[in-house]
Structure formats: structure tokens, C-alpha cells
Amino acid sequence: MSTRIHPTAIVDAGARLHPTVEVGPYTVIGADVEIGENSWIGPHVVLRGPMKIGRDNRIFQFSSIGEISQDKTARYDDATSVEIGDGNTIREYVTIQRGTLKDTGVTRVGNDNWIMANVHIAHDCVVGSHTILANGTTLAGHITIEDYAGLGGYTLVHQFCRIGAHAFTGGGTVVLRDLPPFVIAEGQPARPRGINSEGLKRRGFTAEQIDQIKDAYKLIYMSGSIMAEVKEKLAEMARSSEHAGAMLRFIETSKRSLSR
User: Fold this and answer.
1) Known catalytic residue: 56?
2) Residue 100 domain flag
3) pLDDT at residue 68, as a whole number
4) Residue-wise pLDDT tens digits, 209-238
5) Domain identity same for 36 and 124
6) How many structural domains are present in the chain?
7) The UDP N-acetylglucosamine O-acyltransferase C-terminal domain covers which part of the protein (predicted)?
8) Cis amide leading into 181 (omega within 30)
9) Among residues 39, 102, 110, 148, which one has the fewest Cβ atoms lying within 10 Å of its Cβ?
10) Closest among 35, 66, 36 to 49, alpha carbons compared
């Protein structure tokens, strides 16, 4: 056994760990767990397969990842799993659960996410890359969080909702409907409050691009137009703004509708 694995850790013979993986005291890693190079697994972590974890991840103490979901129909022998990409930080007491046979069977987390303490990611969720999920954020089943989204502490997201790229929620927000890209929301239930201008500036969006996104936001939320008219006008704006186009595509594929 590698000296990088603490002698009190229990690693199943069916687990596949790159030789550079470090495992802390009293951690339990089950069969069919694969962990990529340079990942660090802290003390008292429980990892249950089937699960694939990429490289350069950090998983802190008392996290439980890969356990069967809290769906009452879930069984240990279901053909379900968790897939986690590269470069993620997963802090204390995070829970990420396997998918269900009612959906794809896979719960997915992308790359370079910052997942803070006590976050819960339920079955069949898809979390993109470069997201920030602050302490206590809770995702019900079948949720999609797109790239660069940020969820404030103790945000609660209803099952089947989608949070668009670069969107942001305030602390304690309850999301019951889909939240389009770039939009800030807060409240219980969530209400749109503007666009994530500061976040967009930090990510290199130009002043012109931000103004175009503001115009699209005003059309969706402040014009008083019915949704059919909003879509028609967004389609016109999309000819000169890829980001207006992204908002239009999000609306057209929304399954939970928008909070307006």
C-alpha cells in the first residue's frame, strides 16, 4: 500500500487510486472508486462507488460522496454513479449522491468548482464548471447548474430547476423556477434583481457586452411584454449579441418557466 494512504484508512481492493493520491486517517473508500492523480482526500471521508473522480481535487473531512440517493426507490445495486471532474475543492460535510434509474443514473460535477461546507448535491444533478456553491446550499434532484453560476449561502433549489451560466443568488434564496444566465435573484421565493455585472466584469466581459445583457434583462423582466413578444425581440437582439442569444435559448428550453 502506498505511503500516501494513512494506515488507518480503509481502501477496498477494487478501488483504483493513482499513486499520487493522498488519503487521510479513517477515510473509507469503497470498491469501483477511481481517483485521478494529485487528488487529496482528507480524514474521515466516505467515498462509495461506482464513482470516478478526476485529478487535482481536494475533498475535506466528513464529506460523503457516492452514497445512494435519498429517493425512496433507490437501491445499492442500481446501475447508478457519480462523476467528478478535475480541480474541484469540496469542503467539510458535503454530500453528493448517486443518480437514479428514473433519469440518466449519473450525478455529475464538472471542473474547478468551489463547493463550500454543508452543501448537498442530490441525485441526477449536473453541476457545470467554475461554479461557487456557498455554505449550506441545497440542490434537490435533477437540477442543472451551468458554468460560472454562484449560489449564495443556504440557497435552496427546487427539483428540476436550471440555473443559467453566470447567474447569482443571494443568501437564503429559494429558487422555484428557472433562473436565466447572467441574472441576480434573491428572496423567498426568488425574484430577479438585475444582472451579475460585477461578476461579468471580473470574467472579462466588455462594457458593450454587459449593456447588451442589461437590455435583454429589461426586455424579459421590465417591459411588460408577453413571453411570445419577448422571444421575438430577443431573436432580433441575438443577431448582434451572442449573450442575448444565450438568454433566448435558455428561455426556449426552460421546463420550469421563469420567475418574472
Assistant:
1) no
2) yes
3) 96
4) 999 999 999 999 999 999 999 999 999 999
5) yes
6) 2
7) 178-258
8) no
9) 102
10) 66
Looking at residue 260, what is its pLDDT? 74
Residues 109 and 215 in one domain: no
Q: For residue 68, what is the DSSP state?
A: P
Which band of pLDDT confidence, cut at 50, 70 and 90, is reported for residue 252? very high
Give the range of the structural domain holding residue 45, as residue numbers without chain letter: 10-142
Last residue of a domain, one of 142, 158, 182: 142
What pLDDT does residue 2 have?
58
Does a structural domain hold residue 206? Answer: yes
Mean pLDDT across 101-130: 96
C-alpha cell at 121: 448535491
The catalytically annotated residue of 24, 30, 36, 124 is 124
**Average pLDDT, rounded, for the chain:** 96
pLDDT one-digit tens code per residue, 120-135: 999 999 999 999 999 9
- Give me the catalytic one of 128, 141, 150, 199: 141
Tell me if 178 sits within 8 A of 258, measured CB to CB: yes
67-70 CB contacts, 8 Å cutoff, 24+ apart: 67/95, 67/97, 67/98, 68/97, 68/98, 69/97, 69/98, 69/99, 69/100, 69/122, 69/123, 69/124, 69/141, 70/97, 70/122, 70/123
Q: Is residue 58 part of a domain?
A: yes
Residue 1 clears pLDDT 50, i.e. is over it: no
Q: Is residue 192 part of a domain?
A: no
- Is 103 one of the catalytic residues? no
Active site residue 123: yes
The predicted model scores a pTM of 0.95
Residue 85 C-alpha cell reads as 471532474
Do 134 and 214 lie in a common domain? no
Catalytic residue among 120, 123, 166, 243: 123
